[in-house]
Design brief:
Blueprint: E1 3-9, H1 13-27, E2 33-39, H2 46-56, E3 60-65, H3 71-79, E4 86-89, H4 101-110, E5 115-119, H5 127-144, E6 156-159, H6 176-183, E7 187-191, H7 206-225, H8 229-256, H9 267-298, E8 304-308
Parallel strand pairs: 1-2, 1-4, 2-3, 5-7
Antiparallel strand pairs: 3-8, 4-6, 5-6
Helix pairs in contact: 1-2, 5-7, 8-9
């Protein structure tokens, strides 16, 4: 059994060395492993710190983005380059504890899961971040009907096979377990430790939270209607058209009975206009997302400046 550890990092210079040391201490007890650092457009000495670790240990590999493309793109890049049977993901901020990896792997293998996600039962974040995370997880569970308590925890272990054909873009990294559940994979959960950030700054902002919520709507649509969009759009069309017909019939009947006059009234035009605009907004939004999804299936959402530690055998695999 071989292992691939993926760690995205942006401006985490002071965390790279201690994290690598902690990962090495744990993984040397499990079996052959590789560590893939994804430098997501860092502006400090993060890449230099990664290079030092690569120079000291050939099992440490680096993928460097030309600019900041976001965590979702970083996960996607890592997934397309892994060589191990088991894929382990965690953050670079030292809030995830590498010592939890063996327990997650044991659960993955013993219980027959395809994915085991970490559950930060005791969070070491500030009150505001904990409240936002709690609300986000409750909303995600309500919308997707998924049972995982903490999909936002980056510490996860996967069988490599379940990462094939996993299309990621936007802020979709938050909903990987939801997408895999929809695809039919078995997803488990296990409590893990969570530590306070010792250095660097958090990358989570209100803007990212809003973007994540919008992506949740797309995940819901894709899980429920991707194979039968006519059920959604047809229902909307029937309701809107029925409402328009009823309103037109009502106005026409009142006009024929000479109860009201339509001259100078804006209600007929307003009803038609609202129906047209509503349908256009919904259809344009959904169609635009489908176009984007198809685009990112064939094209990556990132560009790589350089790679270190890879051989021809390690070249990116298509469809992963």
């Amino acid at each position: 059994m071989t292992f691939s550890i993926i760690v995205p990092a942006r401006d985490e210079e002071r965390n790279i060395a201690p994290l690598t040391k902690a990962i090495r201490a744990v993984m040397d007890t499990l079996g052959p492993w590789e560590l893939l650092f994804i430098d997501d457009g860092s502006t400090d000495g993060t890449f230099s710190a990664m290079e030092r670790e690569h120079a000291a240990d050939a099992r440490v590999k680096i993928i460097r983005f030309r600019r900041n493309f976001g965590q979702t793109a970083a996960w996607a890049a890592g997934f397309s380059h892994v060589a191990g049977d088991i894929v382990v993901c965690l953050d670079a901020d030292l809030q995830n504890d590498p010592r939890d990896i063996p327990g997650l792997v044991r659960t993955l293998l013993a219980d027959g899961y395809d994915v085991v996600s970490g559950w930060r039962q005791t969070r070491a974040d500030g009150l505001g971040k904990r409240i936002i995370s709690t609300i986000g997880n409750l909303l995600r569970r309500f919308v997707t009907k998924e049972r995982i308590h903490d999909s936002g925890c980056s510490l996860k272990v996967y069988h490599r096979e379940c990462l094939k054909d996993l299309e990621l873009y936007g802020e979709m990294h938050r909903y990987i377990t939801s997408l895999l559940t929809w695809k039919g994979y078995r997803v488990g959960e296990q409590a893990v430790a969570h530590h306070a950030r010792r250095s660097g700054r958090t990358k989570y902002t209100l803007r990212r939270t809003v973007k994540g919520f919008l992506d949740l709507l797309i995940v819901k649509f894709w899980m429920q209607y991707s194979a039968r969009p006519i059920h959604l759009f047809g229902s909307i069309g029937v309701v809107l058209a029925g409402t328009g017909l009823l309103l037109g019939a009502l106005l026409g009947s009142l006009w024929l009975l000479r109860i009201i006059s339509l001259q100078g009234r804006s209600s007929p035009l307003l009803a038609v206009l609202l129906v047209i605009i509503g349908v256009q907004f919904v259809m344009t939004g959904i169609l635009a997302d489908i176009v984007a999804k198809n685009y990112y299936v064939t094209k990556k959402a990132y560009t790589i400046a350089e790679r270190k530690g890879f051989t021809a055998v390690d070249s990116p695999r298509s469809g992963a």
